[in-house]
Write a structure and sequence with these properties.
With 135 residues, the chain is an alpha+beta fold. It is built from five helices and six strands, in the order αββααβαββαβ. The protein binds iron/sulfur cluster (SF4).
Length: 135
Amino acid sequence: MIFIAHDLSVVRFFSDDIAVMYLGQIVEIGPAETIYSPPYHPYTEALLSAVPIPDPDAEQKQIRLSGDVPSALNPPAGCRFHTRCPRRGELLPRDSKVCETAVPLWRTTEYGHRILCHIPLEELKKVEPVVHRAP
Ligand code: SF4
């Protein structure tokens, strides 16, 4: 069964595998338990930051995407997420044009979790989790 939703907390509840899509393209896919902790695709990270956490002691990143959503009928060149990606100038050199000009490669973890991004997997693994829970 395929279930389509925007709320990743609902999706987590009953999915074995999860695919995250942006502008009609899968940008991250893998076993459900791998999607909710780094490495994340930058779009998945933003979606997770909007999931309500029922824990008053938890700290959660707030990631607000800027810019309009481009048309899926005429998507941007290169990485489709590059017009809104908060990590584009952060984990790649600021003068790099690779996100605007080249379709990203799939990065695959040892768990079969795949991320479509130019940022090397080792850098994506260093990203802080969206949610910190008190020990
Ligand atoms: S390829 Fe570039 S623009 Fe696309 S998600 Fe990765 S860092 Fe962001």
